[in-house]
Here is the input.
Amino acid sequence: MRRKKTIIPFAYDLGQDDLKRERSKARELRDSQWWKRRLAKGACHYCGRSTLPKELTMDHIVPVSRGGKSTKGNVVPCCKECNNAKKQLLPMEWEQYLKKFDPTYS
Here is the structure.
């Protein structure tokens, strides 16, 4: 008798090589002028607060663990508070999370 495979939405089973490759790409992006200009703006992508550039972190909008890539279109500077709160949420899940605390959030 075969067991049905449980499918978890937006979950990826990434191998160590895949994770290593994405981390390497993220390091390259962090060293780029493009990223340094993004940091120089000094604003968190999610909450918009002014933050010192050295205190901003790189966040993957779609987390690597859920199939996201380390590309310019998928990384944003954000404050540590937002990055820690977002964890591995997708953009739609993050918005739902924020709405729990601020019903006027749109």
Q: What stands out?
A: The chain has a mean pLDDT of 86. The CA atoms of residues 73 and 85 lie 21 Å apart. The chain is about 40% helix and 10% strand.
